[in-house]
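To: structure desk
From: M.T.
Subject: fold request, one chain
Message: Could you run this one when you get a chance? Sequence is below, nothing fancy, just the single chain.
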Amino acid sequence: MHTYWIVVASAGRASVYRKAQGLAGLEPVHQLDNPGGRAHVGDIMEDQRGRIEKHGSGVMSAMDPAHGPHEQIIKEFAREICRLLDMGANRHSYDELVLFAPAHFLGLLRAGLSSATKKLPLSCLAKDLTQLVLTDLENRLGDLLHFHAIGSASVND
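Reply: Done. Structure tokens follow.
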């Protein structure tokens, strides 16, 4: 039986559902929460940025970090999800992976998957569906993926 893992994620939360071909509905497999991904940047940032001297002139300038703390929290959450998906692929828990996430987060997920996981059929759609309850999600995904014929659905970029 062909099994799909459907990931509905954002920087603040992720849900992984199992869908077996020929069976109705989604079965929750994993729920992950990342409160730091939902926090406002100002809640995470220090009060003042570091300062750096500009070109030995004695003039001090605000120094922007290459990646702020909020972005680091989001990247770590994406890595956590990817580890889970890679582990599932290694255990043959699913045959095909479907990812739904906002564009930036979707890019982090796609980049973080192992080469073995990337060899599996992968469908992606840049859409945040994390606010939907399960019944609404099933209806929405049914419209997007045509669950009655999910094997023929293509939602790649």
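Reply (cont.): Helices lie at 35-38, 41-44, 69-90, 103-112, 115-118, 134-145. Let me know if you need anything else for the meeting.
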